[in-house]
Amino acid sequence: MAVEGVAPNMMQFGPPSIVPNNSGDGFPRMTPAIIPTVVPTTIVREVLTESNYENWSTCVHWYLVGQDLWEVCQTKDNIPDEARDPEAFSVWEKKNAMALHAIQISCSGEMLSQIRGQTCASSVWDFLQKRAKPTFFFDEEVEVDGLDEQSPPAAASTGNADFSQYERFEQALDRGSWNDIESFLNSNQDAVRAKIPFVGLTPLHVVALAGHVKVAEKLVDKLNPEDLEQKEDLLGCTPLALAAIDGITEIAQCMLKKNGTLAGISDGMKSSQL
């Protein structure tokens, strides 16, 4: 039976086994053999509704990253050509199906009814983002944890980047494309230390998670020591903690050089001790 928010592919069933029923009700008993042998993995705390996109998208984003599926949610214009490269297309097709399924089972019935006809994970992700109708502006006086609508004067200090620009900024961080990152930051200077809406991560969090050493070093150069102490929204991890989890010592070292107190900061992973 399908369960909202649970990935069925995480459930493994053993062969059914029936034992005599001594209760007299005439129905065979279920034995542990037909109980899932692996506890289902919950992708989200609650399925997507009209009012919880920010928290929902953070959880689903992390799940897709962890399953190596996030890339297919960003490759709408770079889908492999089946005729030219059938092997690459086959890999994309499988990952697309897995990502699409993860998104679908993380939606309420009402939300699912709006996307069930779509066959491309990136199109579904874009649709759900744009459906939330965000208006993004970073202000140096306000730490942005999610959507934050500011008046035009407040927004002017960091530029008027629209949603698609922030989406491309996150993609550039994921790729480690410094030219694109620097171009965005030149027009939106405070974005270097602000959390990216819907994701709950600063640029340094994203780069540390992706393992881009050179880009991380350049971002650290642009940050103040206290900026490195920011924690992401899902687990409360600092960028140093994410680098330590992935074992990327070069990134961790450049952060510690900038702020020597980072190693003792408690966070979602208990501490960032290396």
TrEMBL record:
Entry superkingdom: Eukaryota
All copies of domain DUF4219, residue ranges: 48-73
Gene3D superfamilies registered for this protein in UniProt: Ankyrin repeat-containing domain
Any single Pfam family the record assigns to this protein: DUF4219
SMART domains: ANK (SM00248)
InterPro entries for this protein: Ankyrin_rpt, Ankyrin_rpt-contain_sf, DUF4219
The protein's name in its UniProt record: DUF4219 domain-containing protein
Organism: Vitis vinifera (Grape)
